[in-house]
Prior knowledge:
The chain is α+β, with helices and mostly antiparallel strands and about 600 residues long. Helix content is about 35%, strand content about 25%. Helix 1 (about 10-30) packs across helix 2 (about 60-70), helix 6 (about 190-195) packs across helix 14 and helix 11 runs parallel beside helix 12 (about 380-395). The relative contact order is 0.08. The mean pLDDT is about 95. The protein binds one RNA strand of 75 nucleotides through strand 7, strand 8, helix 6, helix 9 and strand 21.
Amino acid sequence: MELTEHNQELYKIRHSLAHILAQAVLEIQPDAELGFGPPISTGFYYDFRLSKPFSPEDLKDIEKRMKKIIKSNQKFEQYEKSSDQTVDYLKNHNQPLKAEYAGELGEKFENLSFYQNGPFTDMCEGPHVESTRKIPKGCFKLDSIAGSYWRGDSSQPMLMRIYGLAFESKDKLTQFIEERRLAQERDHRKLGRELDLYVMDDEVGQGLPLWLPNGTVLREELESLAKDMEFQQGYQRVATPHITKESLYYTSGHLPYYKDTMYAPIEIDGDNYYLKPMNCPHHHKIFDSRLRSYRELPLRLAEYGTCYRYEHSGSLSGLLRVRALAMNDAHIYCTEDQVRDEFKAVLQMHKDYYEKFRINQYWTRLSLHASDGEKFIEAGDRWEFAEGIVRECLEDLDIPFTAERGEAAFYGPKVDFQIRNVIGREETASTNQLDFLVASRFGLKYKGEDGKEHEPYIIHRAPLGTHERFIAFLIEHFGGAFPTWMAPVQVRLIPVAEAFVDYAYEIQQILHRQSFRVQLDDSNDSFGKKIRNAVTSKIPNMLILGEKEMQSRSITWRRYCKKEQVSLGLDDYIGLLKRMRDQRFMDNFEDTQLPLED
RNA sequence: GCCCACAUGGCUCAGAGGUAGAGCACACCCUUGGUAAGGGUGAGGUCAUGGGUUCAAUUCCCAUUGUGGGCUCCA
Length: 598
């Protein structure tokens, strides 16, 4: 958490609570070794190495002790020790983790700071509240227990982390908890089940979703949008196999780096075949399938390619991290003169998608090479050239970015898009690379205007990331309420009584012939129940059909996102529905202007 | 992969060392109702899997698998 003047007081409260947490833990387990205990954006945590692990029930006891400490009004007082003394002191007081860190700090600082409150003392830079009484009543709550590696390094011992929530006041805490609860209501795993979008099955395997008919509609509609966008931008579609001989991944250079996160090979006819973890090598092979002329460039090859990655089991999470994923992938092969415009068009496409889906919060990370790193292929000033292009494109399009040295791919600079949805879920949506080096590994060439052979620049791009992640994100962003063009069921017909089922059936047939996904509710449920069912299924359009409607050959239209309803002539309504679908209107937002006139 | 927790009908969840219960959903019957739950009847579970302790285990212990919260990783 960044310390600014504005949140300084809150920072102190959280930081002090972290100390009080450690103090309470030491009361229960005096031999606990302390790790780090910083404030974070929702509160604080502290890491402990324990002889006996905590269980969630222990949190109540710890919280009680913390409250008691706060009540006893202990003053926070700062003092200093020399670095050498600090290391000795911590070693003698059974704090080897702190001592290790103090040893490192000692190389930079002569003296190290401590804070003491009551019987508890901790090496710490501060700042803290003056006394525990300054901590507002009821402003915190211990939240969860988690494991974490000492110093965030998986080769180090695992510590136990206790997370606490803390805000300026009890009200703010309550508000946060309520907001979090509402966000959980929109969790894509919950909505995925309720709306019959996808399931996971033990016997199929971890991280291998089965897409149900409703979820498959979402995939196909999204893919159809991408196909249209890409077609209009001059992309061509390709299709490539799911398994491939290992030598391809030696050529690409991926296998040595990523072997651990690839599925084990299938050995057949003396060759090892891998499930493909990415699409680029195949697209490169398509580029290389015949002699290319500069007249063909830019060549833009697109594929919603299914890839398989053996992700760590502990990192799998719903649709956000899976082992079978369909990437919104494409590779653009172009000349040096074209690369600026092409990269810019790719960034613009991201903006267009985000605008369409009303993803208002996004930013990027521009990852640059480091001249001293061994990780990057040596390419002289070509690195600067490529990085300059990417940077200019971001600036020209006013896309916010933070530049980071040493984070590039080994073959070129990278732009990662980070997006946040309405409930605060933040995800890396896509990574895009300007690759000026892999062409040579594959021997990719085109014949230029000058009659000589040249290596193309390659842009790797995937604005929608993977179906799995992007759909998960959209489910939460929309709260499961999709626009008509995407919705698994676009229209639900609800006759007021049995006498109107025939009229409803006729409308169903008309809409079905126009390829609308339409359902007629002719169940035994009461009228009220049918309305309720349509609403809880988040169907965007409900058509109410009764005496009135049948007489005038009309419908009464109730939208999911709006309570009020209108009656329209049948033909007028069908025309409107078609425009909403074909023009992909985002009618799931209340303020979207509908295409009432042609 | 690592740490902690959890696993009971399709879903959400009760429950107890002595062979299981609710609501919703589902099926059938009645009801034909103008904007968020009409009524009745019924079916459905080897209590995740495999071991162990016990006269007896779904309940206690161990392992496995899966899920959740984190950590690490993410072409």
